[in-house]
Amino acid sequence: MTKKAKIVLLAGSLLLGGAALQPHAPAQARTVHLTAYNTSTVVSGTVEGAEIMPFHLALREGQRLDVLCHSRKKGVFFVVKDPSGTVIYKSAESPQPDRWTGQAAFPGKYTLAVYQQHPATRKGQPAFFRLHLTVAEASDTGLTP
């Protein structure tokens, strides 16, 4: 093999290797629709590496949201943000990182974002997850807004 061919192969492999290290494009947010007759659902997906998978859910003031996150891999967590974008819960900082119950302080679109925080994240490994979401009215919970 000639010196020129070796240089071309080396340059090509460096370009391809660099492209593989680029971060994933952010995942598109999915909207979760619930009705008065269907107050719970299960959504699922796969996060890869440092990817964040967002879900939007419209809540009225006083509604209670129950979240249960299942994954076979360790290090899969979620955050909950209120309509203003303020983080109101981080499961990675909780003693029970797979569940959360909270009440909507005001109406709007809340965001649940699933992500990995584990050595597998740096390796770009995928992790499947399943979120069980239940919304209850304040009158059903005994709580008042």
From TrEMBL:
Keywords: Signal
Signal sequence annotation: 1-29
Protein name in the entry: Uncharacterized protein
